[in-house]
Specification:
The protein is an alpha/beta fold. The chain has 14 helices and nine strands.
Length: about 400
């Protein structure tokens, strides 16, 4: 919006618009010897197969497309929730509200007739049972169908923990180890694992990582040169895939006399824990991540080492020993979607949405600090309200509550 305003003013005033940040980024990439695209980002030798995020070194591998919000979410439900929330906020009845319905963009525009620095003050509402943000959860069947199939393989919505692990771009690279330890400890805490067992397991994980690094089985930090490039720029198949997802059956999973994850057509990566304090670590974990090699990424290794039943998307979208060669066909069907309006393939663009939904459908969902895609609420708009005692406070309405939205479905 700021750039649009600047360009408009430049046109009206016949002045040149300089984007300092853009020029700085362009010069930075050029100084590193890269050819720079018109958007200011580098053209690298990475391909779509190498890239799992919209990070600077991967932007040239993506083709942008435009989709209506109605393609992703149930706008009718969102509109209903919006109107009910406004009624609750203002303490009015439905008949007191008149809705101006536009047909096209900019049918109606509104101007502020008073002091532009004044604040909108309304009476403080009781806690509203309506949530616009939850109504904006993804509902597209091309996303929900594979997400539900993966959820069912993991034992259903009460069978697994979802973790959104952003480690592959920008500032998330430099903070990856810290963020993933925090996420790991959050999962342990949410599973009710006592502090002593948590610390003992963490120590074992670190010892195991040292051994694996020495053997070359873990990817070292210094080897991730491409993802380190944009650190200071950020402050997230075949025709057979069209067949319906097949019914699932319990897999031949390594068993423990104490605990058996309710997995369907899945095999855990390593033997289950049998020591009583460690039994909760047998809980299945789904990791959604932008790491290019999750199973060898040193930052994600604590999950694979401590939780024997840790899974990633590639355990579901293709036949493998992990899934007993029973993959989820609807994932491939989603990946082959094409936007009829511009012919742009949509699969890669929708993939992060699919993973976010799978994480959100777990009975516990844990994200990466600072990443809005991890479901951390971010402010859509703010309004100042007046409480009963006359004092004022700011209320921020939020979006991104996928976990709560899907929990309400059950």
């Amino acid at each position: 919006m700021e750039l649009q305003n600047a360009l408009l003013l430049g046109k009206l005033l016949n002045r040149t618009v300089h984007s300092i940040a853009f020029e700085k980024a362009k010069a930075r990439w050029a100084s590193k010897g890269f050819e720079v695209a018109s958007d200011g980002y580098p053209i690298t030798n990475l391909t779509a197969k190498d890239c799992k995020s919209y990070s600077a070194e991967c932007r040239h591998t993506y083709i942008d497309s435009f989709l209506s919000w109605s393609f992703l979410v149930d706008l009718d439900k969102a509109q209903h929730m919006r109107e009910r929330s406004i009624e609750s906020l203002l303490g009015v009845q439905p008949e007191d509200v008149y809705v101006l319905r536009d047909e096209t963009a900019y049918d109606m525009q509104y101007t502020h007739g008073g002091d532009p620095t004044s604040e909108l003050v309304v009476a403080a509402p009781s806690k509203s049972k309506f949530s616009i943000s939850r109504a904006m959860a993804f509902r597209n069947p091309h996303i929900i169908r594979p997400a539900d199939a993966i959820r069912d393989r993991l034992g259903g919505s009460q069978g697994y923990v979802g973790v959104h692990a952003r480690v592959g771009d920008g500032a998330f690279v430099t903070k990856a180890a810290e963020n993933m330890e925090k996420a790991w400890r959050t999962v342990a805490s949410r599973l009710g694992i006592d502090a002593e067992a948590t610390e003992e397991m963490w120590t074992q994980v670190q010892v195991r990582n040292v051994r694996r690094k020495r053997s070359g089985r873990l990817m070292r930090e210094e080897g991730r040169d491409w993802s380190m490039l944009d650190v200071d720029l950020d402050a997230g198949h075949t025709a057979d895939d069209d067949i319906p997802d097949p019914p699932t059956k319990r897999a031949d999973t390594p068993t423990s006399p104490f605990f058996l994850p309710p997995l369907q057509d899945l095999k855990c990566r390593s033997p289950l824990h049998t020591s009583p304090p460690f039994l909760p670590f047998n809980t299945p974990v789904y990791i959604a991540t932008d790491s290019r090699s999750p199973t060898t990424d040193v930052n994600l290794s604590p999950f694979f080492a401590a939780f024997p039943c840790t899974f990633i998307l590639s355990d579901f979208d293709r036949p493998s020993e992990i899934n007993g060669y029973h993959y989820v066909p609807s994932v491939g069907a989603m990946l082959r979607l094409v936007n009829d309006a511009d012919g742009v393939p949509l699969g890669r663009l929708l993939l992060p949405f699919l993973e976010a939904v799978v994480v959100a459908k777990g009975f516990v969902s844990v994200g990466t600090g600072g990443s809005t895609f991890s479901g951390k609420p971010f402010a859509v708009f703010k309004i100042r309200v007046q409480k009963a005692d006359g004092t004022l406070r700011d209320v921020a309405y939020a979006a991104g509550e996928l976990h709560n939205a899907y929990a309400e479905d059950h």
